[in-house]
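Long-time lurker, first post. I've been practising inverse folding by hand and with some scripts of my own, and I keep getting stuck on stretches where the structure tokens seem ambiguous. Below is the full token string for one chain I'm working on. Before anyone asks, I'm not after the true native sequence, just a reasonable design that respects the backbone. If someone could post their per-position residues I'd love to compare against what I wrote down in my notebook.
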């Protein structure tokens, strides 16, 4: 009699060429995200700021000049800084968005291969790679959101580079006057009300865009959580790997969505009444 052969678990089936292309793209986009924005944001003869200190050194007197002018319109040097910061965030946002797409595609490929695989060793390697890719995708998503926020409100974003905790010199005088104005806002009887209004409006926009993005992403993640739980319920009870994976996806997606709801609510409140939060910012508490 022939002894029946025990079926061996299927090896993990990972499309090698697709994997190589996606990994190469991820590495290239990651390197570009770190190295390219300052160069790509430079605009011809206007140049860029190769170092953060150079940006701060230009921003400090330009910001003081803007406050002293009392106008809504930025003076040329501050406008140059704000325009550069807008382009900088646009470049980083595009690169982060492309990286997010690549990481999502790579994560889907790895998770599918993990669910198809039967061997414990290959499955562990695939699960580890897929988990790392998923975490990197979340980081890229956060980078996309942060850079969209910075591009929509570049003035508020770039002023976070100022040493507001210990301003010193003329900046200290300007910051002191801004604090006084914000403490009595929306009373418009003080000086430089036009500039102060621009600051408050831009700060409100800075938080409003994050509230919108957080809400949208929370809805998407909630939908993914529901889908994962449905797949968990539909999976055969003998398919422990699929059920375990879908359960974790459902829980983690729901938790991240809940965290984003908290972010959306907090930023909605700040956007509705930005002056107190802006005061905290100029007092060095942000």
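-- Answer (accepted) --
I ran through it position by position. Result:
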């Amino acid at each position: 009699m022939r002894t029946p052969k025990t079926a061996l678990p299927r090896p993990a089936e990972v499309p090698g060429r697709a994997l190589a292309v996606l990994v190469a793209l991820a590495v290239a986009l990651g390197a570009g995200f770190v190295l390219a924005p300052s160069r790509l944001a430079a605009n011809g003869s206007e140049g860029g700021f190769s170092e953060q200190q150079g940006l701060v050194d230009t921003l400090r007197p330009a910001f003081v000049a803007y406050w002293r002018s009392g106008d809504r319109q930025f003076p040329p040097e501050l406008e140059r800084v704000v325009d550069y910061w807008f382009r900088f965030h646009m470049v980083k946002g595009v690169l982060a968005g492309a990286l997010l797409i690549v990481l999502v595609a790579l994560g889907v490929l790895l998770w599918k291969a993990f669910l198809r695989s039967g061997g414990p060793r290959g499955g562990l390697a695939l699960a580890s790679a897929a988990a790392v890719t998923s975490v990197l995708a979340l980081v890229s998503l956060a980078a996309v959101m942060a850079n969209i926020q910075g591009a929509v409100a570049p003035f508020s974003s770039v002023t976070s580079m100022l040493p507001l905790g210990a301003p010193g010199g003329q900046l200290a005088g300007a910051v002191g006057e801004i604090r006084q104005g914000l403490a009595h806002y929306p009373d418009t009887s003080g000086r430089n009300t036009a500039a102060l209004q621009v600051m408050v409006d831009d700060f409100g926009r800075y938080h409003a865009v994050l509230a919108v993005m957080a809400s949208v992403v929370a809805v998407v993640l909630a939908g993914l959580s529901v889908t994962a739980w449905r797949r968990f319920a539909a999976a055969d009870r003998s398919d422990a790997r699929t059920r375990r994976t879908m359960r974790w996806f459902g829980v983690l997606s729901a938790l991240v969505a809940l965290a984003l709801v908290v972010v959306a609510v907090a930023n909605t409140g700040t956007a509705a009444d930005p002056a107190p939060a802006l005061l905290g910012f100029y007092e060095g508490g942000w």
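A couple of notes from the structure itself: The chain has ten helices and no strands. The chain has a mean pLDDT of 88. Happy to go over any region you disagree with.
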